Amino acid sequence: ETVKEKKDFEFDFKKYMYSKAISVNEALDKAVPTHYPEKIHESMRYSLLAGGKRVRPTLCIAACELVGGTEDLAMPAACAMEMIHTMTLIHDDLPCMDNDNLRRGKPTNHKAFGEDTAVLAGDALLSFAFEHIARSTSKTVESERVLRVICELGKSMGSEGLVAGQIVDIASEGDTSVDLKTLEYIHLHKTAVLLECSVVSGAIIGGASEEEIERTRRYARCVGLLFQVVDDILDVTKTSEELGKTAGKDLISDKATYPKLMGLEKAKEFAVELVNKAKEELSYFDPVKAAPLLGLADYIAFRQN
Ligand code: GRG
What we know:
Layout: H1 2-9, H2 13-31, H3 38-48, H4 55-66, H5 71-93, E1 102-103, E2 106-107, H6 109-113, H7 115-137, H8 143-157, H9 162-171, H10 180-205, H11 210-243, H12 249-252, H13 258-262, H14 264-282, H15 287-301
Antiparallel strand pairs: 1-2
Helix pairs in contact: 2-4, 2-5, 3-7, 4-5, 4-10, 4-15, 5-7, 5-10, 7-8, 8-10, 9-10, 10-11, 11-14, 14-15
Bound molecules: geranylgeranyl diphosphate.
């Protein structure tokens, strides 16, 4: 009986992620067509359609569906989250920031189009994300909800959000005295904030109650932090395996990481704590409807790269 019950609830997470990524890619392709001035739109499309995992738009759609909304209702906001995510990657890769040559398996935007165009492509994506939500969601969703989403998005991007995370990260570069509190501040702002905005926006569009909004918000913050803790752990374990010994690249560089500040075992315990906390917030909802968000938490916690 229990086995049968379990089977009824069986949820194909990979299939869900794959099908949402396809719908999101189609919608992004339509949202930013190539037109005059071609160079800027080609540069925006180059990074936007370069094939990321589409975690943020999928979170947005899943949260909307969780509270009874549909994929269509959430799609413009979902696309906006990916536009913002992409612009942060373009700017993060610039010579004045991380100075990276590769992103999503291709030359970075400034390597392909030049620094001037890359800065502008980021700016245009940031601006268009807001326009896209306002223009496309206001036809189907009541304006009070749209306004709330736009406010969430603005706050998440600015000097109390992504920009805050980036500037504290830059300031702590090469600083060997960075503590856990600062590390958590950086990750909550650089990574968790946009995951939180994606989930909360989806929930608002889907008509969530205040209680539901706050539960999904806490879920997303845990998942955002989890993402970085697991990233740090993988950095140590992967490099250790490659070297066949204990010293990972993470232990050599001066970047602050969870394993370095709390030890590998404690970092692993913290990851388990975070995934459990994230799931606990979802226990409030119908388990069948919560399956995609539960799957996403596991996917982030147990990924191998
Ligand atoms: C928002 C105005 C404004 C400026 C941005 C550059 C900057 C300020 C912030 C940097 C933010 C940043 C690059 C955070 C890292 C986020 C992160 C975890 C990226 C990797 O995400 P994945 O694994 O990547 O979802 P894919 O490629 O799959 O989408």
